[in-house]
Structure formats: structure tokens, C-alpha cells
Automatic annotation (TrEMBL):
This is PmbA protein. InterPro entries: Metalloprtase-TldD/E_C, Metalloprtase-TldD/E_cen_dom, Metalloprtase-TldD/E_N, PmbA, TldD/PmbA_N, TldD/PmbA_sf. GO terms for cellular component: cytosol. Transmembrane segments: none annotated. Belongs to the peptidase U62 family. Pfam families: PmbA_TldD_1st, PmbA_TldD_2nd, PmbA_TldD_3rd. Gene3D superfamilies: PmbA/TldD superfamily (3.30.2290.10). GO terms for biological process: proteolysis.
Amino acid sequence: MMSSNAELVKKALKDRKFEEAAEIYFSSSSKTSIKAHEGEIASFSYAETSGLGARVVLGNKMGLSFTEKVNGENIAVSLDKARENATYIPDDKGYAIFESDEERVYDRFKSADLHKVSVEQKKELALEIEKYAKAYDERIINVPEAIYSDVANERIVANSYGLCKTEKASLCYAYAYLMASDGKDTSVGFYFQGEKNFADLDPKKIAELAAEDALCKLNAEEIDSGSYPVIFSASTASSLLGAFINSAGSAFFGENIQKGRSKLEGKLGQLIAASHINIIDDPSIFSMGAASFDDEGVEASTQYLIRNGVFETELHNLYSAKRSGVESTGNGSRGYSSPLSTKLYSPYLQPSDKKEESLFGEAEGGIYITDVEGLHAGLNQISGDFSLAAKGFLIENGKKGKAIKNITVAGNFYDLIKNIIAVADNNRFNDYAEFSSPSIYVKALSVSGK
């Protein structure tokens, strides 16, 4: 059933009767955030936001306008203002509005139980995280953050061709950030869990895995510099690969390729990674970015960025697709007040059937990296170079050995994906990371130590 917001947007478009193509993007969201500390609720917040952006194509020009006061009068004003703004924009043949008259409502990413959960239940979950963490081990000395949050949103894309698509979605998440000390050393631990349904959150698991993360890092040692076989944990591989693949500067985005900001220019159809590597974006997988259609109304679909090591797909919105003479892949991204860009939904590195433990046996004498820092400052998205502070463990006797600290790992993204010898089976989509990867074993990387 179409929402009242969708009916309002449809009516505004119908009433304007532009000869030019026009589009409205509407979004609204509500967010709850709760923090427990020292057995009490330290903070509670609830916020609602909404807004609407209009785009009008006038010949080879496109004008934009937005409002945060969503009513019939302001929608009409926004459309008129967007049309006026178009007259000041230089000509560009890439501007386009999606030519579709489909009407559809989606709710497959909407929680089944979140609307039934009371504020008191949410507060109790945050309190339980802190309680379980402190009870886990006497060396857990502080839990600065025991957090519960949830988000519900509605998104509408409608245009003068008759398109009107609506999606309602919701999600919840919780995490623990804590400190451990044995009197000689101090370390921190973290664990995050995100779900569609509140009932699937597990405060005990969150607390205990965060505690284990901190405890195992105590009394870490320094190691010599050198070239080492490296296994990146699933969370660290996700962060590192995601920084290159699912970011504004992604080499896989058509607009970046067109502007000379990608080393993948001219390499479509070529082998760019190890032949067993498949990188896929599947919008049907529930994650922070899951969606049924993009922010221009184009249906979202599964895309292979890399298939069997071969660069298979450039990702496009309508603008970059038109400039390249191809169809949009349904990866357009915008907010009501922000310009068009490109996005991924639920991208991941396809796992194998190997357990992470089996990789340790293959990388004897190497390093198992569980934390990296400096992902924003320590990498170059165009060249692919990275140099990151890291922590982890030595791999000894085919197992995770003693903890190590104060190392820097350096390499190049394009070399790394060619030198991934093996991947494990342990992807995690419920950590709501920008990219999901299993643990990966890389032949060798430069490590700076003591």
C-alpha cells in the first residue's frame, strides 16, 4: 500500500505538468541510540529527520533543489526552483531521469518485531551488554561504550514519467567497546552485531566476544621488520578491501573511470586478481546498504565486480551510464540535499569452504593481523598503495601465537588481490561493514617492526 508521503509526492508531480523530465527523491528516518555505563543509562536519544530533493532536466541541463519542510506547497516550490536552477547549469549530455512508469512498494528489509519493542527493553539490552562484559573476567576494568541503536527509514523515488517506488526498512544494532588490564598491560576490545530483528541481538555474545578481543591482546610484543606471509582476519580484510572497493573513490565506479581516477580504466574483461577471486554486490543480502532500487528508481541487481579474477562490471548511475553509452547498473546514490554519486549495496568477497584455522597451517611463520588503523590517511585510492598501523599475532605451529604490536603493514591493493592465495569461509554480514570479506591469506607483505 502506497504511503501518504508517496501520494503527496505523486500529486505534486502531476500538478506541475512540466514538459521537461522531473524527479522527486524523499527520505525520512528515525533513530534511537542508548548508552549504558556503570549500571545506568548514561544517554538516550531519539531523532527524526526528513527531506525532499527535486531534479529537473531542461534540455542538456539539470537543476536541483531541496527542502526539509515536506508539504504540497514546498514540493511545488522545490520543483519550480529546480527548473529555474537548471538554466544556470552548463550543458552536459549525461543528465537523465529514469524513464519508467512502474509503481511499487517494498518492505522486505523491514524488521518484523522492532516496532513492538519498548524503550525499556532497548535500555535493558544495553545494560545487559555492560553487565555480561564486567562479569566475564576480572581483568575487564572498564566498559566505556555499551550501545544499542536502531534506525527506521522510508525512501521514495518518483518522477514525471509515472515512476513511484517506495521502500521502508529498519535495522538495529548493538556493540561493546571495553578495556582490559592485568596490571602490567592494557588493551581494548570491540564487538558489533547488527540485525533486522531485535530478537536476534545477543547481548551476552556481544559482551563476551568484545572481552575476548581485549584479553587476547594483553602483553603483546614487538617483532623484527621483514616480509611475512599475512593472514588478515575477516574484520580486517573487510575494512582494508572495503576502503578501496566501497568508497567514494572506488576504482569500480564508472564516473571515477571516466575522470581518470581509476587504475581500472581500459581493463574491463581483463584478469586483475587471482583466478579464484570473486567480488560480488548482492543488494538482496540484508546489510546497512541493502536496497531494492537505487536512488534514481532503477532496480538494484546482483553484479559481479570481479569474476574468476576478471574485471567484469563497471558500476553506473544514469549519468555515468549515459556518458559511457551503456545502461545504468542501478547503483545511483543521492540524498535529498546531496548530488548524484555511485554506491554499492552489500558487496562481498566470495568465501570458500575452508576454515580460518586451515589457513594458519599454510602460513607458518607469518602474521595474523586483527586490527588496522589509519584507513583514511594511510592509503591512496587511485594508486592502491597502503601503509597502515596494525596489531595481531604471530602464526606459530599452525596456530594463532603470541600477540604482537607496533607494526606497520604496507602493500598495494592491486598487487594484494593478485596474491591472495586462499580465502576462508567466515564472512560476517551482521557487522554492517561497508564490505564483507572472509579471512584472506596473502603470499607476502612488507612489515615494519622494531
